[in-house]
Write a structure and sequence with these properties.
Beta-Lactamase; 6 strands; alpha+beta; six-stranded antiparallel beta sheet; globular; 27% strand
Length: 150
């Protein structure tokens, strides 16, 4: 199955699941789980949220996560500070990468915005293979994040 079609199926599934509740925490848990088990070749899938100037782990699937990410360091903070999705083909080449799990090879981070269009956190997905993510992943995950807060 091609990647766009796979994301379309995931989007439709999430759309259906989100009819049950508008609660953001429940939706984040659902997104983490669906993406983790449907995308393939991922190591960690989850959300970090901004709270009192700190980036704290929220809900996720995968091995233990860093609970607090050092401010203005790593891929997650870069996505927040640059207000855009960041695709990293090789995390070992990313200056300031935070290695919560040494098995991580590539990563994508998508900013999450609240209903007032302020960044409230990020969706972070790590893979155990290099070059796992591309522009298609970025575009489709951004759609899923918009659905998350709709």
């Amino acid at each position: 199955m091609n990647k766009e079609k796979q994301y379309q199926r995931i989007y439709r599934q999430l759309e259906e699941l989100f009819r049950v509740t508008g609660d953001i925490d429940a939706r984040m848990a659902t997104v983490s789980t669906v993406l983790h088990y449907k995308l393939g070749m991922v190591l960690w899938t989850g959300f970090y949220t901004l709270k009192n100037g700190e980036l704290l782990v929220k809900t996720y699937q995968g091995p233990l996560a860093c609970q607090v990410l050092k401010k203005n360091t790593g891929v997650c903070w870069t996505a927040i500070n640059e207000h855009k999705t960041i695709v990293v083909p090789d995390v070992h080449q990313f200056k300031g990468h935070i290695a919560c799990d040494p098995r991580s090879k590539s990563e994508i981070v998508v900013p999450v915005r609240d209903k007032d269009d302020r960044i409230s956190g990020v969706l972070d997905i790590d893979s155990k293979i290099y070059n796992r993510f591309d522009d298609t992943d970025a575009k489709e995950l951004e759609k899923i994040i918009r659905l998350l807060i709709s």
